[in-house]
């Protein structure tokens, strides 16, 4: 029987970028996994957690742990949301032994999409083809909390027809930062402008990342600058054939 993967699609993908979730499912099914979508899923609780509402974050986290308690693997197209579950759920429940244990058990089965492909599926080449020049943006949570850097680049290197051009300061923040962009819009916008300057210099047609939130921020800045450069999630690239 094929291994089961439960998709955690995240709020942004559910509401704004459903094509990313569909692309992720397509790639996983191509690799032979049985893909499931637990319909009761909601948010991981990160917005409340980052804003200091810990009890509200715990309520959302408990729901997440209940929904995915029987999942064999849980895969999401977001380093940000995965770092919340893996790194911060145990912190949220450090005073509640039963929930702390459940958080640790679920955290061990939660994977960011690119890490799952490389470390569980052992699949660098998923048969993708995209004749385009792209550059890669290292999102903050994926890079700094999950250590994701070379993995997405390895996956992109196997995409037929694709040329990856590194941008200067690929590891600099795009300025989104969740509620940061709302609280400090001028600073957020300035950071985004710095990022798109680096993107322009590569001559890339697309910016690729593993976090939809970063891509939303970058695409907005590109649109405001009147640039025709597009954004793609890694899953969308890997789904191309």
CATH architecture of the largest domain: 3-Layer(aba) Sandwich
Spans of 5+ residues with little confidence (pLDDT < 50)?
Answer: none
> How far is it from the N-terminal to the C-terminal residue, by CA?
27 Å
CATH topology (fold) name of the largest domain: Rossmann fold
* Secondary structure tally: strands: 8
The averaged pLDDT comes out at: 95
Structural class: alpha/beta
Estimate nothing, just give the exact number of structural domains.
Answer: 2
Main beta sheet: strand number and arrangement? 4 strands, parallel
Estimated helix fraction: 40-55%
Count of alpha/pi helices: 13
How are the strands ordered across the major sheet? 2-1-3-4
In what range is the share of β-strand residues? 5-15%
Order of helices and strands: EHHEHHEHHEHEHHEHHEHEH
Keywords:
8 strands; 241 residues
Describe the structure.
The chain is α/β, with parallel strands linked by helices and 241 residues long. It folds into two domains: 116 residues, Rossmann fold, CATH 3.40.50; 115 residues, Rossmann fold. It has a four-stranded parallel β-sheet, sandwiched between helices. Strands 6-5-7-8 form a four-stranded parallel β-sheet, with helices on both faces. The two termini are 27 Å apart. The mean pLDDT is 95.
Q: Could you outline the blueprint of secondary structure elements for this entry?
A:
Elements: E1 4-7, H1 10-15, H2 18-30, E2 34-36, H3 46-50, H4 54-67, E3 73-76, H5 79-92, H6 97-107, E4 110-112, H7 113-120, E5 129-136, H8 140-144, H9 150-157, E6 160-164, H10 179-183, H11 185-202, E7 206-209, H12 212-224, E8 230-233, H13 234-239
Parallel strand pairs: 1-2, 1-3, 3-4, 5-6, 5-7, 7-8
Helix pairs in contact: 5-6, 11-12
């Amino acid at each position: 029987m094929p291994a089961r993967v439960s998709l955690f699609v995240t709020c942004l993908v559910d509401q704004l970028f459903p094509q990313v979730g569909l692309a992720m499912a397509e790639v996983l099914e191509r690799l032979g996994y049985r893909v499931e979508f637990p319909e009761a899923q909601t948010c991981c609780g990160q917005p409340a957690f980052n804003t200091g509402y810990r009890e509200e974050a715990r309520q959302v986290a408990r729901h997440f742990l209940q929904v995915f308690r029987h999942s064999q693997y849980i895969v999401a197209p977001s380093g940000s949301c995965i770092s919340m579950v893996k790194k911060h759920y145990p912190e949220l429940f450090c005073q509640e032994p039963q929930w702390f244990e459940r958080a640790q058990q679920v955290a061990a089965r939660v994977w960011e999409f690119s890490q799952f492909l490389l470390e569980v599926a052992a699949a660098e080449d998923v048969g993708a083809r995209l004749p385009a020049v792209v550059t890669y943006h290292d999102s903050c949570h994926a890079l700094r909390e999950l250590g994701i850097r070379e993995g997405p680049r390895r996956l992109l290197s196997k995409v037929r027809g694709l040329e990856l051009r590194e941008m200067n300061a690929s590891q600099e923040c795009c300025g989104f930062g969740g509620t940061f962009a709302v609280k400090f819009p001028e600073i957020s916008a300035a950071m985004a402008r710095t990022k798109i300057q680096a993107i322009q210099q590569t001559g890339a047609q697309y910016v690729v990342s593993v976090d939809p939130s970063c891509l939303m921020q970058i695409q907005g800045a590109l649109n405001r600058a009147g640039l025709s450069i597009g954004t793609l999630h890694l899953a969308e690239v890997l789904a191309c054939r």
